[in-house]
Amino acid sequence: MNNQFKSIRVITLSIIALSGAVLSCTDTLEIEAELNSIVDDKELVDSSMLNTKVATSNSVCTTAGTNTTREYTFTGDVNSSINTKIDDRTCTYNYTQLTENGIIKGVYKIKANSNHMDDLQPRIERASPVVSNVKNGNYVSFSGYITINRAGHVAGQNISTTSVKNQSGTYIIQAKGKHSGGGGSKDPAICLLRAVPRFTGNTQSSFDIYREEITTRGGIGLSGRQLIFLKNIPANVRTKITLKTGFELKGVAPNEFLNHYVNITIGTSTYNWDVPEPSKALQAKYRFGAYRVKGGEAEIKWDNVTREFVNTP
């Protein structure tokens, strides 16, 4: 947790104490989330994800990997169908491309403690268009092939890999969307696919893919999120992934309602999920690439990515 966060939290809690206010658990979480929004993109909801911005003079940074602007474009970009802009917050590597078995792949490579842009976890990601009209039939989708070379790993933890608080793993794609009624981040993640490495000796040989999902709108940490195991996929094997998030009518009159969903496929396996409290939804969107590396490095490759987008007024 950075010093700026600590200072603001101490000041805030002192003011609360002096005013004699009595806070419920929900109120406390909302204050924590608001304090977290001191960071530039105001998207993190869990203070444990804060990571002090690194100076570009640090040895973790490289000349080739230190981009001076957070977003940039790439000539001949094979992943540009989702978004031409690349959000790069690591000073070790930049987005690049390589050819494997005749397929051009976009390479999203990040290193622990290498974010030179803000106080969040390192990432190289792209954002989808935003479904802003919350209506039946509106959605945004993703389809592509992933090849995971390695994911972030922190050894020696006494935390279950099924716990949200486990430090290992890298997010490969995340559904996001703002909501009404307050609570949590100003731009919250709704569910994220976390790739957690399994080892053969010292080599990452496969990855358990978990869905990190909210249990309530604005949910953070252990009290507001949970990990659901979906599937194990081998390292360095090209695997198809799709994600579709949007809105559809569900139920039968007079109990019909507008549902908010995030449906995912990994290979031939389907994992459909309904977002809690759908009536609070204000939008649907996603980000993909590589995000979060608390130890070591992550290298995620994406190819043949496409999207569909329906946002009927």
Automatic annotation (TrEMBL):
Q: Signal sequence: where?
A: 1-24
Show the InterPro entries listed in the entry.
PL28
Keyword Nuclease in annotation = no
Report the superkingdom from the record: Bacteria
Q: Where is the PL28 ulvan lyase domain?
A: 56-310
Which keywords belong to this entry?
Signal
Q: Name one Pfam family in it.
A: PL28
Descriptive protein name: PL28 ulvan lyase domain-containing protein
